[in-house]
Amino acid sequence: MNDALLDQVARTVDRQRLIDTAVALVEVPSPTRSAGPAADRLAEILSADGFSVQRHDADWPQAPIVMTALDSGRPGPTLQFDGHLDTVHLPYVPPRVENDTLYGSSSADMKGGIAAALEALRVLRTLDALPAGRVLFTAHDHHEGPWGDGRQVRAMIREGLVGDAVMLPEYLASPLPVAGRGLAIFRATIHRDGEPVHEVLRPPGTPDVVAAGAQLVNRLHSWNEELKENSHPLVGHGSTFVGNMQAGEIYNQSPTECLVQGTRRWAPPSGSAAVQDEFSQHLAEVAAETDTTIDVEFAVQGGAYQIDSDGRLVHAFQQAHTAIAGAPLPLGAKPFVDDGNIYASEAGIPALTHGPAATGAHTLNEATPVEELVRVAKVYALTAIKFCVEA
């Protein structure tokens, strides 16, 4: 990496502007499915900076996506910076900056990262540094499950509002994830015919939905042990997990429904459809054995994927990271599921998740060091310069 270029990027990142942007975004509460005002705030920031902003409903007109692009004017690939503006449904914590750390709801997950990616875009424009191609900047709602279902990212893919590769500034600073497990959140409801009844007044042969629920939980537990036998070299093995089971209104009533909720995670190369079919087969067998019916919601949050560790995006990122940190990142797996899973597994778009070393995601204590936001802005700008070369 050219030392002069590295120095130019480092000097052009405006630390206070980056902080102000992050604070302005965190100031707007944006629980999933209600991120419209935060999207409006981001659009206002971009417009005030002189960027041309487009808004697209993307299957959720309550919060149209925010999109802008920096075009070099020369043919070449498009690198997308993409982030979600929505947050989990926890009490809102307003922003504050103390001891060079940004606190507040979404400071870690992930408005701090979005602000860093936007700062990278500003740097690239100021320096006119893109050799070719363009950088596409997008932000959206409908990320956090179970409230969101990823519809806006899927709509962006369907409508062609995507790049040739995508970077997502989520709160993962190491390793560099080139693979990830898929995730579905399931909600299985076990039913029997009839009405709730006192335990001693049950007609003979009345199906027991609580026992059926216990049988389902045990089956999923046994299946989880079987899944451990097949391990992917990067992401490990698949899993089934039950975190919630509910039934009945009182201790001695035979209920008509039992709810079992949990997750199913799987490793590449398994596809979401095949995983869902196998899951449904387990439920069908339990239903047949217990004389009940089982309805299931199987909400796929993102599929399993693996990208080419020798591809253009990984090489560009590693050059940028080495220039900033002195060494490339070790390759590894993504511990969580984010929108990169959708881009990679459903659209075949190489996706890298890399953001600030932040803490407290999905809690009331989110915190992101400002220096990490500055670092991410530099890495994103340099990655774009290395990725967007003439075709």
Automatic annotation (TrEMBL):
GO molecular function, a single term: hydrolase activity
Superkingdom of the source species: Bacteria
Annotated transmembrane regions: none
Keyword Metal-binding included in the entry's annotation: yes
Keywords assigned by UniProt, alphabetized: Hydrolase, Metal-binding
PANTHER family cross-referenced by the UniProt entry: ACETYLORNITHINE DEACETYLASE (PTHR43808), PEPTIDASE M20 DIMERISATION DOMAIN-CONTAINING PROTEIN (PTHR43808:SF25)
Name under which the protein is recorded: M20 family metallopeptidase
Naturally occurring in which organism (per UniProt): Caldilineaceae bacterium SB0664_bin_27
